[in-house]
Structures
1.
Amino acid sequence: MKLDRLVGERFKEKPSDCVVESHALMVRGGYIKYVANGIYSSYTPLKRITRKIEQILREEMDKIDGQEVQFPVVMPASLWEESGRYQSIGKEMARFSDRNESPLVLGMTHEEAAVQLVREYGQSYNKYPFMIYQIQTKFRDEARPKSGLIRVREFTMKDAYSFHTSQEDLEQYYDKCHKAYERIFARAGIPEVISVASDSGMMGGKISHEFMLLTGIGEDSIAICSDCDYKANLEAAENIVINQKSENAEPLTKVHTPDKHTIEEVCEFLNADAKNSCKAVVYQRNADDKYIVLFLRGDLEVNETKLTNHLGFEIHPAVISEDSGLNAGFIGPVGLDGDFIVLYDRSLKNLNNLVCGANEIDYHYTGLDLDRDLENVEYYDFAKIQEGGICPKCGKHSITVSRGIEVGNIFQLGTKYTKAMNMTYIDSEGKSQYPIMGCYGIGVGRLAAAICEVSHDDYGPIWPKAIAPYQVHLCAVRPDDQEVKSFADKLYQDLLDKGVEVIYDDRNVSAGIMFSDADLLGVPLRVIVSPRNIKQGVVEIKTRDKSYSANPSMDVAFEEILKLL
Amino acid sequence: MKLDRLVGERFKEKPSDCVVESHALMVRGGYIKYVANGIYSSYTPLKRITRKIEQILREEMDKIDGQEVQFPVVMPASLWEESGRYQSIGKEMARFSDRNESPLVLGMTHEEAAVQLVREYGQSYNKYPFMIYQIQTKFRDEARPKSGLIRVREFTMKDAYSFHTSQEDLEQYYDKCHKAYERIFARAGIPEVISVASDSGMMGGKISHEFMLLTGIGEDSIAICSDCDYKANLEAAENIVINQKSENAEPLTKVHTPDKHTIEEVCEFLNADAKNSCKAVVYQRNADDKYIVLFLRGDLEVNETKLTNHLGFEIHPAVISEDSGLNAGFIGPVGLDGDFIVLYDRSLKNLNNLVCGANEIDYHYTGLDLDRDLENVEYYDFAKIQEGGICPKCGKHSITVSRGIEVGNIFQLGTKYTKAMNMTYIDSEGKSQYPIMGCYGIGVGRLAAAICEVSHDDYGPIWPKAIAPYQVHLCAVRPDDQEVKSFADKLYQDLLDKGVEVIYDDRNVSAGIMFSDADLLGVPLRVIVSPRNIKQGVVEIKTRDKSYSANPSMDVAFEEILKLL
């Protein structure tokens, strides 16, 4: 393809609305065009990249006996009512009615469609296991699309669904798919992707993993043990606390703390360590605004995912009203009276001599001992693990927290969907059973953007060979020079004839413009034909990542390029 | 792939809700699964077929310098407001609002998105011409989805958009694309597809063609000249009528025609030929129910497409109310009084001695001569061309009418979209101009179904080699026979190693079940290994279309199969 025919514009200035580099480079390089919030069109270079990623996905899914199918983008609401998710999923799901007022939804995931497709097929145990997958457009009405293709509303996804007759069989297949995912990320040029235990969220099921590409711009926080192989999304990471009661137990004493509202202010005022305080964090149930008061150690933060999972309903940070019975800033466990859900984090277990609110304006207690001062306290895990925290696997203080982009996920779904949608099979003993499911997703556009995010320099993306839009970027500097033009033309044709994907720049522009456009296209191998090179009888070859450059003589240039590919 | 692992069911009984054969065979063969009205999931065999079709489309689009891009499925309403189609398109377009109440639509075609993508790129004449295309899911809320994949609501389409600086350049490219379409249909195994002139409908523009696969179940009627190369969709076909006045002009005479309402009843009662009558057909404007009274010769039918195009607004067949001033069954041009739009078809030109309604219950006129009895009558072309009608090109009475499935269409759009959306370029003389567009569509699923419709027998589809889900269907009849099993297993592996797409049936079922499943999968080459064949030292090879069969000896069977592929 000749660069001067390539539809799309390339430019130098970083667009002001781009926060992350992959977003800026994809706009500057003519990869994407904004259509609406979280909705983009793709130009040819990106389309070539995503098609290569899709082909890798297809090959690796086929290798683990996946069968490619296709589910609809538009589905009847009734299908989602069967699973219960028509009700349980909120505004992320786009809903509309057709001309006959039948309610429809846009697919954001396809568990329901997968069960519907195979419900009749899978009626006997001897059909199992099997896996079906698709590569298709999805729409999720994200509240805050951002970072270009990292978080969008419309996206292409590879989603796979496996069906099994035993948990052991699911687990075996789950491992197989885990390995396939490792191969996929390695083939796509990011072998450094790690898998971490994750929260299953709206998907259901117990065990799930996310594949994370570590980068500072990632939206997820990941707890990684520097000593063993423990890795988990912060949302799912267990927080272990080992406390010891002080031997000098103080009595519970009310103290005057005028205008000290936050736990930091109170601790400073009372000269106490935040670790020796019991702070209250208040939420409200979305459905009816009922208050939930959570107590945890003053130096920790709430992990809202764990809290929501425990409660089993959606919550939001509280807006505390005057008639609530809560004295904001002075809430404590002793003497708290009202129709609240009260919860205790296990970071408070086995502590005494704590500072806490006295449920009275301008007063706190010191000397709190929950065991002594309250009855029947139950402790659960609601706090975020912290840098330097205790690894839940090896028990050492070896947790580090990193940021990452989720580029894939796998879930052991269990029988959530097959039960809800009444999909059964007859087992070898003639008994009716529910199949056990797994599901496995990779977002294509996000993967491309994530790769760009970890593989670029100031001038453009550095695409790994396997997914680069072209393999060779041929520049004819000064194509008005007859020798340059005819040599470059021939090289272009020879490479095309060999089936090499070449982008050929023979525009009458400066070398500077040529090279900055080439940087933005990020093609692995750059070949430069110029009057100076011709004079020396050579061609200049460079890799985009600058790891290699050579000046082979003109007569071997073609073979040299083929060798490098 | 082993057949016993292939997800999907195959069965003999024709489903009662399937009217056309391709629909029945695709359900019976485990190709599609109904999800909702006009919405299907695809099993692997169909997915393999459509992927091959898509690859053919891609290659042929690339050959005519197309650049693959991708537009969104979900688009903001504002984009369609720019072109005016947010208003002009009716219920076929799915509309919904996102969580912020922003109106969105589902793409049913992508002219607006194409212009949006290249509006900034195409600002100078030297960027032209260029063509961009995509292969993607579309949703059109059809009033009456039917015939399986022939008329659905959700479908995958290849849609291409070209941009030009002159009508000549568009026409040249349009011809190039016409030839690419011919190659596509030939490669997909249906070289018999014909192109016919068509009505441009909601797309706009003047010249357009549809590619039609002739078959009795087709929804379109096509006028074909048996004498010259004239071919047109009936909707777009000009109807030529040559009339001569009778020399014995009769006077206009009111006659009593009690209870004779239809033109057939009246003509029979008055012993007149329908050709000598002037019938009235009444419509109403959708917007305000205003009546439109159309007069045409009694033996002809109204072409509503031509009528709507003339009127420039949407209409529906009239419901004639009592206070309308119209006497249903007795409407005629003489003395017709009221606030109606009155139109005359050119089939009435130069006729006299006509029977027509007298606008009075139970009365008609005879002897009508529009020239004599009315003033200022203007005639337009509103009638359907008929079998035996006059060819608008060669002028002979040589029109035949056939039915066909539209498998592709191409449009010369002109500047409709670029003007409406203010896309301009600076021409070589520094003047601002609107680019001229063409657009080119092929529906992937419909093409697969249409091919099945014209290429099947009573037992299943006969897939052309280029799009068949597999190339070889290997049957091991009596796999419990050690010799059969080990020979067939080895053949399967050898073929796989050669990269041949094989579906291997080694189930312990009767030959009858094996062969009927093979018929339903429609794979071009069937290879049968059985105890009887083994005893004779041969393998049986048959083509699905029954044009070829052979029994090569076992030791050359592998080479023989490769030769046949």
Note: The first helix of chain B runs from residue 21 to 28.
2.
Amino acid sequence: MYSFLCDYSEGAHPRILEALNRTNLEQTDGYGMDSHCLSAAALIQKHIKRENADIHFFVGGTQTNLTAISAFLRPHQAVISASTAHIQVHETGAIEATGHKILLKSSADGKLTPADIQAALDEHEDEHMAKPKLVYISNSTEIGSIYFKAELEQISAVCRENSLILYMDGARLGSALSSKENDLTLPEIAELVDAFYIGGTKNGALMGEALVICRDDLKEDFRYHIKQRGGLLAKGRLLGIQFEELFRDNLYFELAAHANRMAELLNNCFMEMKCGFLTHSPSNQIFPILPNNIIEKLEKDYSFYRWKKTDETHSAIRLVTSWATEERDVYVFIERLKKYYRSTDC
Amino acid sequence: MYSFLCDYSEGAHPRILEALNRTNLEQTDGYGMDSHCLSAAALIQKHIKRENADIHFFVGGTQTNLTAISAFLRPHQAVISASTAHIQVHETGAIEATGHKILLKSSADGKLTPADIQAALDEHEDEHMAKPKLVYISNSTEIGSIYFKAELEQISAVCRENSLILYMDGARLGSALSSKENDLTLPEIAELVDAFYIGGTKNGALMGEALVICRDDLKEDFRYHIKQRGGLLAKGRLLGIQFEELFRDNLYFELAAHANRMAELLNNCFMEMKCGFLTHSPSNQIFPILPNNIIEKLEKDYSFYRWKKTDETHSAIRLVTSWATEERDVYVFIERLKKYYRSTDC
Amino acid sequence: MYSFLCDYSEGAHPRILEALNRTNLEQTDGYGMDSHCLSAAALIQKHIKRENADIHFFVGGTQTNLTAISAFLRPHQAVISASTAHIQVHETGAIEATGHKILLKSSADGKLTPADIQAALDEHEDEHMAKPKLVYISNSTEIGSIYFKAELEQISAVCRENSLILYMDGARLGSALSSKENDLTLPEIAELVDAFYIGGTKNGALMGEALVICRDDLKEDFRYHIKQRGGLLAKGRLLGIQFEELFRDNLYFELAAHANRMAELLNNCFMEMKCGFLTHSPSNQIFPILPNNIIEKLEKDYSFYRWKKTDETHSAIRLVTSWATEERDVYVFIERLKKYYRSTDC
Amino acid sequence: MYSFLCDYSEGAHPRILEALNRTNLEQTDGYGMDSHCLSAAALIQKHIKRENADIHFFVGGTQTNLTAISAFLRPHQAVISASTAHIQVHETGAIEATGHKILLKSSADGKLTPADIQAALDEHEDEHMAKPKLVYISNSTEIGSIYFKAELEQISAVCRENSLILYMDGARLGSALSSKENDLTLPEIAELVDAFYIGGTKNGALMGEALVICRDDLKEDFRYHIKQRGGLLAKGRLLGIQFEELFRDNLYFELAAHANRMAELLNNCFMEMKCGFLTHSPSNQIFPILPNNIIEKLEKDYSFYRWKKTDETHSAIRLVTSWATEERDVYVFIERLKKYYRSTDC
């Protein structure tokens, strides 16, 4: 059984394990105050071209989101997000558990628009309603789409005009920035948003997300919030060592580019088979629509999500590739798929 | 500079790194639903002799404490703890951030007594006061002391008589159970408390704490709480693999016993030098009281905490040993200490 | 300027003021433990025909909702409600501020259906999502509609099959139960829901809502929650005295019936004028759709909400009547409206 | 049975009831936006000599405290208070329920000192501990003592040097300011603290506390917080009308002065009987220490709290007087007390 379920099925890229082995017996300070965390932060600052950005390392994405959002907001302030947002759908009410309402805007492609943001502002006008204050976007989104530069510029503009905090969930930022269609760079993102995180867990690390706080007034006392929410890792160096390795050179982007290439191979095959797609995805998650009988055959050898029933005889499935997906495994899948199509009346 | 600051200065025991390397390319399910987590849970159940205990793995202690306590309590219910408790002193208000009050009982030796618990119950009698519901104890405590069997039995009895939940923070449970003075076993603890955790971070793991829920009515929906608080690790297997290694045989206890032996060597030396101690500690943290001029000399080559000024010319320091402390480094320290004493008027 | 803005524009019904004056110098216990609160609770128990229901008095609706919902739920549990729900739209995120997510179901008429509830259950199936546990409905709803007996029975059935708590916001329960179209009784409601409140503020009291908890397992320690959320009124008797007066006889229902009659007079006039309505409302809030130029004329002498633009030249307005609305004021309004229509090309 | 249990045993001063009766049929805006609230706020601003202070009306003290404190603080920030503080002892964990830790300083007389504040600051120095940010004091305190001008100036100075918010709970501010020993004025308090509230419930109102926010940066969006915590009263005018009456002239201070005089009469009698006192109280709560057999006799005709056992045969009791305490009832009490003393071997 081979898994296309997610991009965190395997451990870590070998270089990361090597780094952990190499540094294992060093004695360092705890809680992210060690030389590896400092060095990893400096490397990331260099990549984003902002030496004064604050970098904090977390173990996972939900923890990063809930800590940052609750640290940035006062109690009456709310988050604007797409209805597909991870914080809305897949974090068990973690944001609400810190006291904040999420204001949803329905989205077909997983992206939020300036018009959505303006509408949320217009709808909330007095103290009987929560006050919109932070805009949450994901790049790539939960359904594989990515933000283009012009889109992010417009969102950033509407946020700044309205004193909204713009926060980007970058659990799959590597895949977004390494996409063939992408026209954004890390420094541009750091310029346009107020805070974002660079996901490691889904791109080659054992675990780890690097939160980047760009805006000065969001920086104060941030480590208190990490500790209070349970996110300050005792052996913080584990995160520093991994991000050192990912950003020492371009490893982070190379791993993501590989994942995207593997998704593209799969994508091309589905297009060849004349499959439709639930959504256009130029990143490492794809959502082809297949006949249910073919899905059943695939399920004998592969794990993946049945995402959505699209009609009586078809469903969209989700296939996710990663730094660890091997080309030969993709080709075996493609061969099988083609065989099933040949032997089936679709 | 050699560090006796804490027991999480180094990475992981070599067997743990080997296991991570060995399993790195396995594809597993995420979020702790993989075979390694299941196997680690089974090993722990066997060690504690309770097959129906629920085992959940966390990355760190504060996260374990805040998730368990907030899951177990209703909003108006409060925690009883010693004034020295980690949740009171060193978690940045994490428990209060989930909405719960901590009711403090002053403690000289870090331990809570049945009388403390009874007093807290007596003082809180109506709806104008928070309602005591959970008793938090640490073993070993934050200042190195350990609970004896008779003590734990009495605490357990007063809790059960009063329908209080008894929770043990086991960040350093290995050290407590491996102490020469200890008369408790893991199965006895599992019998006497309602939930406890077995600390890995401070005993040889890269990171990881195994929460054990013994009481049935505390088990329901627990994974929701882990996720909501940001503690559900995507590559949950990392925790499973480490606890598999620690509990496959007696590695967990051997590492702790080593740490205790190293602390004992230091302890014996301080006793030989006629030092006093802040508190009696039979575990891997010791708190000798030294002349300030000797402390200053030691600080040139060693990191450790100055814990408390005890008079104008003396202070208690904290020295912590671990699985990674090497005997030769302890002997070098002892030699230096003796030399400083010989050359000083104390 | 005459106001149809809301049903809390005036003070209290004269009988209530008289009762407050009459009892003013009595010395009573505080916090709702006095004889008036006990007597009011007994009167309500009699009206709902459940002597073992627990009755708690609150000053206002938002406080009642947030206290009850946060007392009933564990942290990971969520509320299912219509998108028009007061807790969703007009409580400034009060429910989320206690840590709970609200799962919205879009509703045209302000009512929730069994299918909505089932859909919410189906969509939330594992620990990565909040767990639906409480169903919130309002009767009458925020847009004037009311629940019929068959509807409430079906909702109650789906809740009980799925171990969901059914909670009814009765801020305007008097108006709902006194509606000409109503086929529900107080005892039936108490049978079908698990908790509900009987609104006084909008039906003749200075302030006050009576929360009725029908289900035994929701009753425990409830006064702690009221106190913790700041809702335990020192001179609790003020609430008891008012509800004594409202439920000593049928005053509560008579006041609501009067409000409904006044709304019906207005309603009939709008129908005569061939106005459309935003929604069908048989209670004390009506939402006629008027030409904007007529609205502007009315606004010179009357306050009311412009609720929603319905096309380029028309808007729905909200008119609310109450126990204090005098018939002669309604007739003056009607006269004016008719005059404006006669003199206008609509 | 006559009650000295508390200062909220009766309803309201007749002038307040008259005002409520007089204004009953006025139509006003809801939620504190009416002319009575505006006028009451203006009267209070004049009394405190700060026209730019923000005034918000609440129904009760716990609600005022929890709303203000949670609005003023970020999640990691904590409150410093005396161990006797109402928020610590008698609000069921209301502050913690909004997420904030209370750091206690033991106090014999109910007052906090600059040294206590400095100690709390010194003890909390890094992100592993909650960060002290707000100082909570009560005047008069929970045990009847009052702050003198020099004390408040010193506390204010240490707060401003350390960027701490100084908040005064004025549930019994009237009694404090009307005490014979008092040397503080309302304008001085408004100058020295950042926010405080003027208690109405315990000084002649049916209910009501007026929160005064002096510091500009604490004012923003405050009404959102009131609404979110359930404290925005629909018929807000009820609070405005009462404070109009209390501050239209000096009624507020006259009522408090009466209460203090009644307490003084009692006090003098206890001194004459050579009773000791638990604490020195120049306000409307006194804590004489009596032989238990005399207490038992008094309990036949009077309600009051047994506050604390002081030795095997004596206890301190609490007697509270109010605007409604009549002189003749005090004299009857005194006569009885003297009689019991005469007939007893104490």
Note: Residues 251-272 of chain B form the longest helix (22 residues).
3.
Amino acid sequence: MPRLSSAYGGIEVRKGSVTSPLWLDDIQVGNQFTSDVYELTADSIIEFASEWDPQPFHLGEESARDTFFGGLAASGWHTAAITMRLLVTSGFPVANGLIGASIELAYPTPTRPGDKLRVHLEVKDVTRSKSRPGRGYITAAYETVNQHGEVRQRTMARLLSFARPS
Amino acid sequence: MPRLSSAYGGIEVRKGSVTSPLWLDDIQVGNQFTSDVYELTADSIIEFASEWDPQPFHLGEESARDTFFGGLAASGWHTAAITMRLLVTSGFPVANGLIGASIELAYPTPTRPGDKLRVHLEVKDVTRSKSRPGRGYITAAYETVNQHGEVRQRTMARLLSFARPS
């Protein structure tokens, strides 16, 4: 069951998004965010993979059958792109945008056609830059989960963030 | 200057690709591979970002001007997708495909329109599974570099690999 967001860590959350962008000052360890849902079709798996990851297990149900995945699976880069789209459009409204400095990805299970994906994010660390006081880094852990609670992607990202302009 | 591949670690390399797929048994620490080139246009940056990472600095030269990037920059997920395409089509011909278990990404500089991207990969570790002798993991470090030698993406990936069928 996907957790539904309501109010986390004192920040008002509305359908997976907050009412205004968040500056470094607004973000605290433990804050959580939940995105809207993205529904994945077989056609879109094949379309993405044809351009970016043309391997048999991503290109068709038939060509995928006798592979490690035993059936059509989305490219990990497709799951990553969907995750980013969900965060940017509904998940984590950081002021000045989501700018990743470094990222760790893991794929516990393959993403499949019919998956309805949602992203749950939790802030794990907030650090202000010593050399540039107007900037800082947010470390966020997030999971991309389908409608059955299966985790398709686990991400840990270090994101650039900016202090509220004075 | 991009390094051009010729012969690395005893494996014959031909224009960034080997003549036949590599099984776990064929891959050794220190083996290096170089991909073909992918040329990136402003239009393709905007097209990718419109779907997967719709933020001002990825959507147009004008909307990008006053942002952190000071001009149009590709989504990191676009650079990652290009990197995968280069590895799959010309870079690292692992038998049964490139299947990432976990991945670390870093973006030292933003990818820009006009970049001609190439991937250089080096095998850092090869481990055979103890529980499943027919399988193993390859740890590969690779850089996505443009025509001026600027590193756009640094990747460390743990890839599933299969022993040659007996």
Note: The helical segments of chain A are 42-52, 56-59, 61-64, 76-91.
